[in-house]
Design brief:
The protein has 344 residues and is an alpha/beta fold. The chain contains 13 helices and 14 strands. It is globular and about 65 Å long. It binds 2-amino-3-ketobutyric acid. The site of 2-amino-3-ketobutyric acid (AKB) has 11 residues, from loops.
Length: 344
């Protein structure tokens, strides 16, 4: 079988690096990366070509590539997008629209649907207050689509744009010979936690930041209240879900945007787990009202039944396995000396 040509935008970010490693492990593809930053050493040997620079200005270049699959990960995350809204809109919406147009054009011209994998987010939801959040329980994909943030608005709109370009663009879908359209698929990710990289610019960042600080013996002031609860997931599960959705036969998919879920934990729950593993951890709470408002608008739990039914989704890591089998073994290995010292 010939190699598949794959584009990964935002390749130097947290999901990007894990995804490139996952793709390389699967094999059978030529990886083209795109990012503002130079490639980190961890993925440099795995990438055939890296296009460094502003994606929005670079989209034209991609018309010359024959991509089978596009993973469009480049984004300005929720906290950063609140302080630089116009720039976030440019990156999150204009960048996505440019790539969707390119993928739609190539799908039609070469009669081959380009697969477009889009990471959406729990930020696409928005609750008016904490009572509504607590009462909502497991939120389904089409409920509470009333985001409070620039990032959430961008993600929700780009989901709709993806559906538009893959189904209705030009209103030719009812023609006797409709054009070949791109194949758009999206996952709404919860907060993600990697044992290898740290996030930046997001609001679910308090979870991974707290754990990485605790492991290194560095004091951490958490920017949300102790009772704050949203859903989280181990990075390997996020990559697994992305590949599962990518591989799922199109006829099995009853929707184009799917929730996935692994575990929900309060900020106090993170502290308890961190202290159990690293007893000297110094964790305090100093809520930032703006960032608090963002997570208060996000669901505590999402309903991922559609993903489970359509493509067999199931996380490998519940909260116990996340700590015991993924995060802590890596931390203990990496920060052996630090944690031994701080535990004395
Ligand atoms: C963020 O906090 O902005 C992201 C997300 C939940 O999409 N991690």
């Amino acid at each position: 079988m010939s190699e598949q040509s794959v584009l990964v935008t935002g390749a130097c970010g947290e999901i990007g690096q894990a995804l490139v490693q996952g793709l390389a492990k699967r094999g059978g593809c030529r990886i083209v990366a795109a990012d503002l930053a130079p490639l980190p050493e961890a993925i440099k040997p795995l990438v055939a070509e890296h296009l460094q620079g502003d994606l929005v200005n670079k989209v034209k270049i991609f018309y010359d590539y024959d991509f089978d699959i596009i993973f469009h990960l480049a984004a300005s995350l929720s906290s950063k997008a609140e302080v630089a809204g116009e720039e976030a809109h440019r990156i999150n919406v204009e960048g996505t629209m440019g790539l969707l147009m390119m993928a739609a054009y190539r799908s039609e011209k070469y009669h081959k649907p380009v697969k477009f994998l889009f990471p959406s987010s729990i930020a696409a939801y928005g609750f008016p207050n904490l009572e509504a959040k607590h009462a909502a329980g497991r939120v389904k994909e089409d409920e509470w689509n009333t985001p409070h943030t620039m990032y959430g608005c961008n993600k929700l709109y780009c989901e709709k744009l993806g559906m538009y370009y893959s189904r209705y663009c030009g209103q030719r879908h009812l023609d006797p010979e409709p054009p070949v359209m791109l194949d758009f698929r999206a996952i709404r990710f919860p907060g993600l936690i990697s044992a290898f990289t740290l996030p930046s610019g997001g609001t679910s960042d308090y979870g991974p930041e707290m754990l990485h600080h605790a492991a290194q013996g560095i004091p951490y002031a958490c920017f949300v209240r102790e009772d704050t609860k949203i859903s989280f997931m181990a990075m390997p599960d996020a990559i697994k879900a992305t590949f599962m959705l990518m591989d799922a036969p199109r006829e099995k998919l009853t929707r184009q945007v799917y929730n996935i879920d692994a575990f929900s934990l309060t900020a106090a729950g993170f502290r308890k787990r961190a202290r159990a593993a690293f007893p000297a951890a110094q964790i305090t709470f100093a809520p930032n009202p703006r960032r608090q408002g963002i997570v208060d608008s996000w669901p505590e739990d999402v309903d991922d039944d559609a993903a489970r039914q359509d493509w067999g989704w199931q996380p490998d890591y519940d909260v116990d396995r996340f700590f015991e089998e993924y995060f802590l073994p890596e931390m203990r290995k990496r920060y052996k000396r630090t944690s031994a010292r701080t535990n004395e």
